[in-house]
Structure formats: structure tokens, C-alpha cells
Write a structure and sequence with these properties.
The structure is a single chain. The chain has 18 helices and 2 strands. With 502 residues, the protein is an all-alpha fold. The protein has a two-stranded antiparallel ribbon. A hairpin with an 8-residue loop joins strand 1 and strand 2. The longest helix has 56 residues. It is globular, with a radius of gyration of 24 Å.
Amino acid sequence: MDQSSITPNTSNQQLVINGDNESATALLHEKQSRRRDTLSDVTFKEYMTVGILCFVNLINYMDRFTLAGVLDDVKTEFGIGDDKAGLLQTVFVIAYMVFAPIFGYLGDRYSRRLIMAFGVALWCLTTFAGSYIQSFVPFTIFRGLVGVGEASYSTIAPTIISDLFVGNVRSKMLAFFYFAIPVGSGFGYIVGSVVGAAADNWRWGLRVTPFLGLIAVALILWLMENPERGQAEESRMRPTSYQEDLRSLVRNPSFMLSTLAFTCVAFVTGALAWWGPQFIFLGLTLQPGVEITQERVSFIFGALTMASGVVGVPLGAWLGAALVKRWGRAHAVICGVGLLVSTPAMALAMLLTDVYFYAPFALMFFGEVALNLNWAIVADMSLYVVIPPRRSTAEAFQILISHMFGDAGSPYLVGVISESLKRSLSSSEPPSLSVQFRSLQRALFVTCFVEVLGGIFFLLTAIYIVRDKQKVDRAIAAYEAEAQSAEPSHSNAQEEHQEGGE
């Protein structure tokens, strides 16, 4: 695509974004001077809106990983192996990613409040109903329906934050929003294990989040602010055709490279989040003198995940805000370095799980902190290199790609590799605990390679990120400059028409 132009609306006009476009450049400087750069400028209603979005994101990820906290009980009740246990999460993610583009298209054109309320209500009802199903296949189908509901929320929520804030404030609010992902995931393990153990039935762990979800639906419908698209950037750009949206996104190197990098992140987090508690449980069980339950491991793993999010997400946002002012490529570099630092820590933790008790937890915590550096930053990057009326579609496209090639397949792939290794390493049925551990350990080493690949993609993103962000800023300013210059002529034409009528 010609890097000097962009089509911002459905008309045949082409806005040329050149450095010598004086009116657009002047308007861009004027808009930047009016930006709210401190949290003291944020209104109470805006804080409340972000708080509601964070609450829903928290219970969203709680619901997603509650099942992982009781996975061993699920396998026992349904009589399934690692492959089918991984399939449960894969079916959920497939439904999630398939419906994301649909909700992305709707989110750029219709009421985001109603779409999100519908989606949250759907996943609450399907989670609750699914907890009563007694056979594996129908239960798997209901997990897929949960993914449909969650797709509507995850696709649209970040774009609302983008339309409320710009610059440094937007980065901080997105950090707050994505802070809920590791914390919610950790709560999911804890709620699943604790409630399931207290009720002596893993299904009760699935029945907590639906009630919280009903509260979320009410908050979305009656208290959440629903800003105009592009409101924070004072943009009145209208949506383009869906084909033009996709064509522009595919030709946007920063967006595509960061999407590929985030796909690697999704692959790694999906596999580790799903198999982590069971892998640690198997490793600790092999150590002499260690007696521990699956529920206890899930609780510890959940607390560790939460703690790493508490440290990692704000740290990433702080580093991004501090460095990007001096170096425009800082966001992409922080994400890339974070993944490359995380890889050896996670690999070493997996190697030591059957030998030491505390060292693997400490290494996993350090690895997850480095991995969590990217959550808020990658979302901010994906939004500021895309024009406002195209952002829900961009979020949906990124969800589709990252989950299709990321966590849609990684839990199942790890499970299949593990089952295959069990058959090759042992002739007995069932295989020994040692064989189960070694098989799952070797299968999980796949995530280390993918994590390095993700770091490389983020570093490649740094090459293009400054240019593509400036291109979007100029596109918005050029559109507004043209609109302002057209308004007087339109007004004069009306006056002349009225005078002629007299």
C-alpha cells in the first residue's frame, strides 16, 4: 500500500497525508496540545466505566480458567486423557476466535453497550447450564458457547477505553484493564480449586462467575459510558467497508507483526495456563517426602499467577510510559525483551520441578512477570496504529489470528504430544507418574521455542511502529482539516441558495 495515503471513509475521497499539508499538521499540533495527559483530568464517570470494564474482564478470565484449576477431577469424572482434556480449552478458543470477527464488525457500527451486555449474559447462562451436564461431548459443546459470549466482550471493551482517552492516560487505563487478565486467571484457579474442594464437587467451582456476570450485565446497561467512536481524538471518521478494513490491516506492518508476536504469547500462555497446575502437581509428587494435593497446587499456581500480574502488568505500563516519550520504539522493544527474558526462566523452572520445591515456583514467577510486561503495551500499540473507526475490526482480527494459531491449538497440541510420549515411554497401563511427568514436561518445552519466536516478531515491530503511528495521527488530522474547510463552503452555499430564493 502507498504509505502516503489512507482511505478514512466510505466516500471516494482519498486523504493525502504529506508533511507539507499545513492545515492537517497545524490541526494535529492543536489536538496534541489539548490532550489530557494526567489522571487528574479523568472524570468520575470515565473512571467508573474503566472500573466496570475491568470487573467484567476479571470475571471473564476467572471463568476461563476455573476449569483448569480442577482439570484432574474433570479428567477422572469423564474418563479422558490429556488429549481430550486439552480439547476442552481448544473448543472454547475456536468458538471465541470464530465469532470475534463478527462482533468486531458489529462493534464498529452498532451499540457496543448492547453487544457487550448480550455477550456477558450468554456466557453466564452457558457456564451455569454447562455445569450440570454429565457427559463429555455436550459439556464440550457448552464450553464452546461460553467462548461465543466472551468474544463479544473481549473484542469491543478495549476500543471503548481507546475512545475515552489518548496518549499516556490511555496507556495507563489499558494497563489497568489488562491487569485483570493475570489476576482473573489466578482467581479462576483459586475459585475452581477452593470451591470445588469445599463442595466436594468440581462443578460448583463453575457456578460462581455466572452470578457475578449478572451484576456485570446490569452495570454495563445502566452505568457504563458509551463514547462516540474516535471521541478522545476528536475524530469524526466514518467506518469504511469491511473489505477495505481488512485490506488496510493486512498492509499495516506494525499491526501484522505485533499480531504475530501476540499469537506466540497466546500460544505460550494458553498451554502453560491449562497444563501448569497438573504439571507442577506431577513433578512435586515425584519428590520424596512431599505430600500435596491437586487443589493445593492449583491454589498456589493461581496465587503465583495473580502476583506476577500485579507486578508485571503495571511494570510494563510504567516502563512503556517512561521510555516511549524519549524513544518511540520502546513499546515494541519492551515486549520483545520481556519474552526473551521469560524463556530461560520458564525452561529452567520446568527442568527443576521434580527436583526442588521452591525454586520452580520462584522461576515461574520471574518468567511470568517478564511475560506479563506485554499485556497492556501490545493492546496500546494495536490501537494507535489503526484509525478509530477500524479498531473493533482490528481487535477482532487480532483475536482471530492470535487464537487460531495460538491458544486454540496449544493446549490440545501439548496434550496430544504428551499422550504420544506416554505410549512410547511406557508399555504399562496406566503409565507411571514418572512417565506422565516426563511426557508432559517434554511436550511443554514446545512453548519455549514459540516464546523466542514471539520476541523476534516484537523486535521486528519496532522497525515500523513510529512511522505507522504518525501515519494514523496525520490521517485523523487530515480528515478533520478537510471537514473544517468544507463546512464554510457548505454554509456559504446554503446562504447563496437562500438569497436566490428571496
